[in-house]
C-alpha cells in the first residue's frame, strides 16, 4: 500500500514520512551496505567526487538502475520478465539505426519509446488477458525481440549523434539527473489511480478486484511501462557506446532480477519498494568498481560478490529472527 | 560542488596543456602515447571471458610475459578483470582502469563497437591500448593485433584442393553462423573453391567450435554421402569431431584441415592423416603485452600488426606433438615463441 504525499497539513506530512520510514525496515541493511561501498569506493578512488568521476560512475549504473526498475515494476504486480535484456538490445539497435537518419533524435526517441510501450503492452495483454504464465510468455518474447534486434542490425554497428553521446554520457552527470527525473515520475505515477492499484493488484488481486480496483489494467500498464524503461535503457546504452550491438543487453535480464530481489522485492507481488530495487542495482554496479580497486583477482571477485549478495539479503532476516 | 567544478576545470586545462605538448612530440611515437609515462608500468588486462581453455592458455602466456618484463624492471603490476561475457561490465572495468591510471590496457573486446568511446577516453589520457583477437571498430587504440581469418580459410582450401588433385567431393565445417571469425574464414576459402569447379561441396555445417556437435553433424552427413574425398574444417575442435565420426563408421580417413587443438593433432598422428592446420596463437597475449611496453618506451608501433599464421603439416607435426604434454588435454598446442620472434613481427618481416 502506498501513501501519497499530500499538502493538506503537517499531520499528514508527518504520517507520510513515518510510513515511508516503516517501508524501509526490510532494506535498511542493504542501505547500510550500499553506503559502506560508496564510502569505500570514494576512499579507494577519490576522483569519484569530481564531476567527471561521478558522471562516469553514474553512467555505468544508470542502465542497470532502469532495468531494475523495469523488473521491480513487474514483480510488484506479481509478474516477471525474462525479455528485459532482449528489449534493451532492441532499444539500442533502433536508436543506433534511426537517430542519424532522417528520423533524427526526436523521431528515433519516439520510435524507441513507442516500441518499448508497444512490446510491453502486448506482452502484458497476453499474460493478463489470456492468463498465461509470465515466465513462459516473456521467455518466448525474449527470442522474438532478440531476433528482431538481430534482423535490424545483424552485426554490431550503426551510429549515434556525437552530441547526444556527449550530452548523456560525457563528463556531466546528465544520466544521474535523468534518473532523478525518472524516480520523480515514478512517485507521480504512484499517485494516479493506475499507480495506486499497482500494489493492490500484486498483493491480493482477488480482493483488489472485488474492491473495484482495475487489476487487469494496472498489470498491463505495468508491463507497458516496464517495456518503456527497458528500451530507454537501450537508448542510453547506445548513446554511451556510440553504436548499436544486437546482443548488448543479454546480461540485463538476470541482473535486473538480482537487483530487484536484492532490493527486497518479493516474487509473489505487492512486496518491496522501488528505492530497494534501485539500491540493489547500485550495489551490483558498485561491487564491480570496488572489487577492481581492491585489486581482487577475477576468481576472488566471484566469491566475494556472492558473499556480499547473500550478506545483504540475510542481514534483515537475522534481525527479524532475533526479535 | 564548487570544488568539483574547479577540479574538472583544472583537469581540462591540464589535458589541453598535455595535448599541446603531445602534438610536438607525437611524430615518432605510437598512437595514444604521449611520452609522459615512465617505467615500471602498470598493465591492465581487460578480459571478456576467462573460462574457455583458449583464454586460460592465452592468459598464461600473458602472465609469463609480465614476469619477464618485471625482471627487466619495465613492469611492476598486472591488474586483471573478467567481464564474464558482459560487454557493459567490460566498459565499466576499462573505466576503472582509466580511473586507477594504469599505463597500458590489453583488451579482448566483448563487442566490436561498444568499447569505442571508453577507449577514446583512455587513449586521450595517454594510455597504451593493445587490442587483440576480438577487435573493436575504432582507431583510438595504440595497435590492433590479429591473424588474418580470410588468409586462414584461403590457405586451408588451397591445401585441400591440392591434396585432392583438384577434384572430388568435400564437406565444409564452419563455426557458428554470424560470428565474424567463422564468416571471414569461409569467405577466404570461397575464391579458391570457385576456381576449382571440380571440387564439389556436398554439404556445409555451422556448429559451435566443439567436438561433440561437429561429430554429430558429420555423422549424419556421412550416412547421406557415401563418396567423400576431403573435409574442409575451419576450426580446431571441429576437425577432431569429423575424424572421430569417420572412425566410428569405419570409413577411410580423408585429407582434412583444422586448427591446433591437441585432440585433433593427436588423432592426426594416430590415424596417420594427410592434414594441415594453423592456429590463433595463444602467445598473442604475450605479444600484446610486450607490444604495449614497446609503445610506452617510445618505439613506433603500427596501428595494425598482422600476425603470420604458423602452419602445421605432416612435416612438422612431430615437433608439435613432442611438446603435447606441456598443454592441457582440451587445449591448443601453440607454436614456440620468443622475443626474437616478437621483434621480427614488429619489424614487419
TrEMBL record, chain A:
It is found in: Cell membrane. It is a multi-pass membrane protein. The chain crosses the membrane at residues 25-49, 61-94, 106-128, 135-154, 174-199, 220-241, 247-269, 276-296, 302-318. Keywords: Cell inner membrane, Cell membrane, Membrane, Transmembrane, Transmembrane helix, Transport. It comes from the Bacteria. Part of the ABC transporter complex LsrABCD involved in autoinducer 2 (AI-2) import. Probably responsible for the translocation of the substrate across the membrane. The complex is composed of two ATP-binding proteins (LsrA), two transmembrane proteins (LsrC and LsrD) and a solute-binding protein (LsrB). This is Autoinducer 2 import system permease protein LsrD. It comes from Aminobacter carboxidus.
From TrEMBL, chain B:
It is found in: Cell envelope. Residues 44-300 form the Periplasmic binding protein domain. Pfam families: Peripla_BP_4. Residues 1-25 form the signal peptide. Its main location: other. It comes from the Bacteria. InterPro entries: Peripla_BP_I, SBP_2_dom. Keywords: Signal. Belongs to the bacterial solute-binding protein 2 family. This is Substrate-binding domain-containing protein.
Amino acid at each position: 500500500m502506498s501513501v501519497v504525499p499530500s499538502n493538506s497539513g503537517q499531520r499528514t506530512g508527518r504520517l507520510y514520512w513515518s510510513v515511508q520510514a516503516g517501508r524501509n525496515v526490510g532494506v535498511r541493511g542493504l542501505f547500510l551496505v550500499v553506503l559502506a561501498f560508496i564510502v569505500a569506493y570514494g576512499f579507494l578512488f577519490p576522483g569519484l567526487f569530481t564531476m567527471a568521476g561521478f558522471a562516469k560512475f553514474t553512467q555505468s549504473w544508470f542502465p542497470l538502475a532502469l532495468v531494475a526498475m523495469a523488473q521491480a515494476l513487474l514483480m510488484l504486480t506479481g509478474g516477471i520478465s525474462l525479455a528485459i535484456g532482449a528489449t534493451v538490445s532492441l532499444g539500442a539497435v533502433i536508436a543506433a539505426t534511426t537517430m542519424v537518419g532522417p528520423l533524427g533524435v526526436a523521431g528515433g526517441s519516439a520510435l524507441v519509446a513507442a516500441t518499448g510501450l508497444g512490446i510491453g503492452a502486448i506482452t502484458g495483454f497476453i499474460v493478463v488477458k489470456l492468463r498465461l504464465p509470465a515466465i513462459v510468455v516473456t521467455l518466448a518474447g525474449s527470442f522474438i525481440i532478440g531476433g528482431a534486434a538481430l534482423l535490424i542490425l545483424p552485426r554490431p554497428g550503426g551510429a549515434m549523434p556525437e552530441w547526444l553521446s556527449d550530452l548523456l554520457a560525457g563528463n556531466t552527470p546528465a544520466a544521474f539527473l535523468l534518473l532523478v527525473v525518472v524516480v520523480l515520475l515514478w512517485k507521480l505515477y504512484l499517485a494516479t489511480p493506475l499507480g495506486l492499484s499497482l500494489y493492490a493488484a500484486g498483493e491480493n488481486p482477488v480482493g483488489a478486484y472485488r474492491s473495484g480496483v482495475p487489476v487487469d489494467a494496472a498489470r498491463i500498464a505495468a508491463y507497458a511501462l516496464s517495456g518503456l524503461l527497458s528500451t530507454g535503457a537501450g537508448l542510453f546504452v547506445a548513446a554511451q557506446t556510440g553504436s548499436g550491438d544486437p546482443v548488448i543487453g543479454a546480461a540485463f535480464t538476470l541482473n535486473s532480477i538480482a537487483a530487484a530481489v536484492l532490493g527486497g522485492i518479493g516474487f509473489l507481488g505487492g512486496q518491496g519498494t522501488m528505492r530497494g530495487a534501485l539500491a540493489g542495482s547500485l550495489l551490483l554496479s558498485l561491487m564491480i568498481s570496488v572489487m577492481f580497486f581492491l585489486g581482487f583477482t577475477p576468481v576472488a571477485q566471484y566469491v566475494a560478490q556472492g558473499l556480499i549478495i547473500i550478506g545483504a539479503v540475510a542481514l534483515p532476516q537475522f534481525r527479524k529472527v532475533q526479535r | 560542488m564548487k570544488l568539483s567544478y574547479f577540479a574538472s576545470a583544472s583537469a581540462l586545462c591540464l589535458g589541453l596543456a598535455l595535448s599541446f605538448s603531445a602534438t610536438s612530440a607525437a611524430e615518432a611515437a605510437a598512437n595514444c602515447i604521449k611520452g609522459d609515462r615512465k617505467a615500471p608500468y602498470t598493465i591492465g588486462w581487460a578480459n571478456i571471458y576467462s573460462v574457455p581453455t583458449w583464454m586460460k592458455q592465452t592468459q598464461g602466456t600473458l602472465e609469463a610475459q609480465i614476469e619477464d618484463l618485471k625482471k627487466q624492471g619495465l613492469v611492476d603490476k598486472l591488474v586483471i578483470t573478467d567481464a564474464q561475457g558482459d560487454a557493459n561490465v567490460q566498459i565499466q572495468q576499462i573505466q576503472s582502469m582509466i580511473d586507477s591510471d594504469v599505463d597500458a590496457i590489453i583488451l579482448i573486446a566483448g563487442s566490436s563497437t561498444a568499447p569505442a568511446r571508453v577507449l577514446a577516453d583512455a587513449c586521450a589520457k595517454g594510455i597504451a591500448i593493445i587490442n587483440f583477437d576480438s577487435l573493436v571498430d575504432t582507431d583510438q587504440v595504440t595497435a590492433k593485433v590479429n591473424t588474418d581469418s580470410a588468409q586462414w580459410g584461403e590457405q586451408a582450401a588451397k591445401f585441400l584442393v591440392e591434396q585432392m588433385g583438384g577434384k572430388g567431393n568435400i564437406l565444409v565445417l564452419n563455426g557458428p553462423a554470424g560470428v565474424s571469425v567463422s564468416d571471414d574464414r569461409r569467405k577466404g576459402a570461397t575464391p579458391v573453391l570457385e576456381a576449382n569447379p571440380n571440387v564439389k561441396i556436398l554439404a556445409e555445417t555451422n556448429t559451435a567450435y566443439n567436438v561433440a556437435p561437429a561429430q554429430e553433424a558429420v555423422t549424419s552427413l556421412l550416412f547421406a554421402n557415401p563418396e567423400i574425398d576431403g573435409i574442409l574444417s575451419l576450426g580446431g575442435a571441429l576437425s577432431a569431431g569429423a575424424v572421430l565420426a569417420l572412425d566410428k563408421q569405419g570409413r577411410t580417413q580423408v585429407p582434412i584441415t583444422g586448427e591446433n587443438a591437441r585432440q585433433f593433432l593427436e588423432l592426426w598422428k594416430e590415424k596417420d592423416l594427410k592434414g594441415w592446420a594453423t592456429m590463433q596463437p595463444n602467445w598473442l597475449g604475450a605479444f600484446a603485452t610486450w607490444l604495449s611496453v614497446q609503445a610506452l618506451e617510445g618505439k613506433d608501433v603500427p596501428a595494425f600488426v598482422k600476425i603470420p599464421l604458423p602452419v602445421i603439416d605432416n612435416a612438422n607435426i612431430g615437433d608439435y606433438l613432442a611438446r603435447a604434454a606441456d598443454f592441457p588435454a582440451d587445449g591448443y598446442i601453440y607454436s614456440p615463441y620468443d622475443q626474437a620472434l616478437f621483434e621480427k613481427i614488429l619489424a614487419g618481416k
